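[Automated response] Your request has been received and processed.

Submitted sequence:
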Amino acid sequence: MILADKIIRLRKKLGWSQEELAEKMNVSRQSVSKWEGANSIPDLNKIILLSQIFDVSTDFLLKDENEQFEAVNEAKELGINHISLEQATEYVEHKIAMTNAVTKGVVLCVCSAMPLFFFMAMAQTNRFNMTGDLAVALGIVSVLILVAIGVSFFIKTNQYQDEISAIEDEPFELAYGVHSAFYEKRKQFRPTYNRRLSIAIFCFIVSFFPLMCVSIFSFEQDIVLLMVDVLLFMIAVGLCIILPVSARYDAYSNVLNETVKETETTKRAKRAEKLAEFYWPLLTAIYLGWSFWTMAWGVTWIVWPVGAVLFGALVGLMELLNKDTA
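Generated structure:
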């Protein structure tokens, strides 16, 4: 296989156009076209750059007898998995699917009390002929159903463990071209990642503002209860944004098998993400336990606004401790 055919095959394997390859090589598209048409040969510096971009050896590019896309180091250590482009892509897909299930479970736990607060607000104003006892009964049923569904999503994550273990739990090396492809994917995804993290953090920060403003300027119990629903909804929106986007970015980094240099905003968002994964289900359990123990559903709702403020405080404490240990 001649050099021209190898360039074509490697370029198409990564899904790049001639224009994209030319941009990475800092040459014109016509130059790439001539290389692939065997009308000209890249100079030595361009050959070296091609080997780096395609993640292959210069020896592989220059020797026509090298027909197979073999790894640079054929003598792999025993127990080292060889990850192809297809396997790496499947890993990312499974990682995202797993996180989507976790996200659904966490969001359902966070939102499980929203129907209860809504029914209690309706009971406060006697709308829909809603009584206090009926509101509590319907609210309890809603909480139990949503929590049960949320737990089922947590259980479903077990089906993805085998698919992701090859990269997350075992040593591996990448096939030729995989590193370059995923480095490019992560680079293109980074602006979206940073933008959505900023939006999620904004949702967490401002989630308590509506409830705080209503508590200061209004003493109507039904409005306060509805603002608790708004608080939980904004937190759920933030989690829906931050968990999937972080999972995709982390999956790219795991495939690249390297430590990523992150901004302070990114690091803070990841710590908030890890905290949220167990904090909100735990808060839901505390709320249910306290409410069933005392049967004071008109009082125990205070757990949610207090929990939201505590969540922000814990994130701040994590930042403080991180600075002290840095």
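Summary generated for your ticket: The chain has two domains: 3-62, 83-325. The domain at 3-62 is CATH 1.10.260.40 (434 Repressor (Amino-terminal Domain)).
If you did not submit this request, please reply to this message.
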